[in-house]
Every structure is written in C-alpha cells, then in structure tokens.
Amino acid sequence: MGIGVSVGLLAIWAPKPATDTAFALGALIMGFGITAWSTAVGIGETIEGVTTQLAISSGWTESGARAAFFVLSWLGVGWATAAAVASITLGV
User: Fold this and answer.
1) For a tag site, which of 7, 9, 57, 64 has the least CB within 10 Å?
2) Could you tell me if 38 and 31 are in contact, meaning their C-beta atoms sit under 8 angstroms apart?
3) Which of 30-34, 36-40, 51-55, 64-68 is least confident?
4) Which of 27, 44, 39, 31 is closest to 78 using CA atoms?
5) Which range marks the domain in which residue 70 is found?
C-alpha cells in the first residue's frame, strides 16, 4: 500500500516529496493504531462494562478492539516500510 501511495503521489509531486508524504501517512496510521491499541488495553474492560451496564448493544468488545488496532498498527508499519523501500528504489 505504501508503494502504491508513493507511486500515486509521483503523478503530482517529485519523488522525494511523494515518498516522504507516503512515509508520513504510514507513520500517522501506525501512531494512531498504537495509541488506540494501548487505550483498548488500558481501559477496554471499563468501556465494555459501561456498555453492558447501560445496555448499549454496540457489539464492542475489548478483545475485538485490541485485535483491530493491532492490525491497524502493523498496517502503518508496513506502509511506512514500503514507502522507505520505494524511496531507496527511486534513489531519493
């Protein structure tokens, strides 16, 4: 995905800004995923208890949130790594 974004941005920008932007987007996704994952780990039981107590049937579970944000974090890592590889490949 990071390589795809880098190549897509090449249509608009020069190689260095395109790969830098793709890397920054990947790092942003990774940072959000890590922050949300740690929140789910830290207060996930509380959120799940509150939804049960208030009889809110949202389907949200602590384990589901942890799994989703873990995947999102690694998606960001892969995206940033792919953008770095594209940068090296393009020689910028």
Assistant:
1) 57
2) no
3) 51-55
4) 27
5) 2-90
